Amino acid sequence: MTMKEVNIHRQELDYSANESYKSLRTNLLFCGEEKKVIAITSCTPNEGKSTVSLNLALSLSDSGKKVLFIDADLRKSVLLGRTEADGEIRGLSHLLSHQDTVEDIIYATNYPNFHIIYAGTMPPNPAELLGGKYFKRFLQAVRKVYDYVIIDTPPLGSVIDAAVIADECDGSIMVLESGVISYRFAQEVKDQLQRSNCPVLGVILNKVDMSKQGYYGKYYGKYYGKYYGKDKKKS
After folding, report:
1. Is residue 182 part of a domain?
2. Residue 5 lies in a domain
3. Which of 174, 179, 186 is nearest to 211 (CA)?
4. How far apart are CA 166 and CA 171, in angstroms?
5. Residue 214 burial (10 A CB sphere; 0-12, 13-18, 19+)
6. Which region, left, alpha or beta, applies to residue 5 given φ > 0 means left and ψ of -120 to 50 means alpha?
7. Domain total of the chain
8. Strands across the sheet with 114-117, in order?
């Protein structure tokens, strides 16, 4: 059976953003090879979680790792808008509702060793599907094939899905938008994530205004902007 293929429209990153993803990749690698199924969530929508998840997964693939990226936001998927595919797209909701097999929903991409699974049609019961035994067996199967499985989950501050998913993962990562999310709210979401018995590997501070990072932020921003392309305020 030939795997269906889609094209990913990869975001062009400036130097500082590209280095940041390399640093994230290195930090994740140092967590140990047993941390291979990773759930990524945020507190609220529009914090850049899906962008961070996809770019981190692609960065892992760049290093030679075999990576599966799963869009598990069954309520509001954004992956379709970042890829180019022909024909009807089948996804995770189709698998968990027993309409399709794993082979039917895994797509190859224009990047070697990088496969994706779309969210699929929005079901009436996302949390129940993700909390079922079939999802657990599915993750047990794909972890034997891939070096890393990166799962983009819904914001935990909005719905419980991310905690349900994290319960079956080796680790979790929170994405926080700089200057927007309060410490108390972030702590509440982190505590809820930890109650799923999934280690929180770290927090990614996103949309940081580099122009406010003092001397070194301004110096490196201008220096690398000059030699590696247009400088951007937010990275």
Report:
1. yes
2. no
3. 179
4. 7
5. exposed
6. beta
7. 1
8. 83-84, 5-8, 106-109, 114-117, 67-71, 148-152, 37-42, 171-177, 200-206
- 116-159 pLDDT, tens digit each: 999 999 999 999 999 999 999 999 999 999 999 999 999 998 89
Which two tokens mark 203? 């927090």
- Cα 21 to Cα 70: distance, rounded to the nearest angstrom: 19
Q: How far is CA 173 from CA 58, 67, 176, 213, in A?
A: 16, 17, 10, 24
Which residue carries 């990576």 as its tokens? 67
Beta strand residue intervals within 72-112, DSSP E: 83-84, 106-109
DSSP codes joined into one string, 20-81: HHHHHHHHHHTT-TT--EEEEEESSTTSSHHHHHHHHHHHHHHTT--EEEEE--SSS--GGG
pTM of the predicted model as reported, rounded to 2 decimal places: 0.86
User: What is the span of the domain harbouring residue 122?
Assistant: 31-228
CATH number, domain of 214, equals: 3.40.50.300
* Rounded Cα gap, residues 129 and 143, in angstroms: 19
Bigger pLDDT: 80 vs 41: 41
In angstroms, rounded to a whole number, what is the distance separating the alpha carbons of residues 144 and 114?
15
